[in-house]
Each structure stands twice: as C-alpha cells, then as structure tokens.
Amino acid sequence: MSKAGEAIAVNILGKEYRIACEPGAENELLSAARFLDARMREVRGSGKVIGMDRIAVMVALNLAHELLEEKSEQDSA
C-alpha cells in the first residue's frame, strides 16, 4: 500500500479491526474481510480447530495451498 487512506472497520469472527486502506480500495478490502470471515467460520464450525490464532493459521495455510496449486496449474498450461 503506497497511500494510506482512512481506516476501514472490518469484522472477523465477531471482532472488529480497523485497517488502513488506499483510497478507492475500500470495497476490495471489505470483500476480502467477508471472504476471510467466512473461511474462518467454516474452520471453526468443523470443531477440529479451537482458538482464533489457530483458526487464522489454518485458514492462511489452506489459502496458501490453494494459491500455490492454482499457480502450478497455470504454469503447466
């Protein structure tokens, strides 16, 4: 982020975070926060992972895996 705009409030697993956002990128930030919240709720709902930090790490690992898989598929195409 090169230019910090105003802080935007996002809600993830019932906790509010204020995140600095470039002007004009607010909708993308809110969309990313909703996506992250949904994925974290999915992991929490499985009942296999307890604790906000562990849920966040599991979601981050899952997303990184998906991203690397997609990149690998694109590189082989």
Spell out the blueprint of helices and strands.
Elements lengths: L6 E6 L2 E6 L5 H21 L5 H25 L1
Antiparallel strand pairs: 1-2
CATH homologous superfamily - what is it?
Answer: Cell division protein ZapA protomer, N-terminal domain
CATH class: Alpha Beta
Report strand %. Answer: 15-25%
Q: How many strands? A: 2
Give the H and E element order: EEHH
Weakly predicted, low-confidence segments: none
Can you tell me the overall shape? flat
Structural class: alpha+beta
Q: In DSSP terms, counting alpha (H) and pi (I) runs of 4 or more, how many helices?
A: 2
Percent helix: 55-70%
**What is the CA-CA span between the terminal residues?**
31 Å
CATH architecture: 2-Layer Sandwich
Largest sheet, if any? Answer: 2 strands, antiparallel
Describe it:
The protein has 77 residues and is an alpha+beta fold. It has one domain (7-76): Double Stranded RNA Binding Domain (2-Layer Sandwich), CATH 3.30.160. The chain has helices at 26-46, 52-76, and strands at 7-12, 15-20. Strands 1-2 form a two-stranded antiparallel ribbon. β1 (7-12) and β2 form a beta hairpin. α1 packs across α2 (52-76). The radius of gyration is 15 Å and the shape is flat. The relative contact order is 0.12. The mean pLDDT is 93.
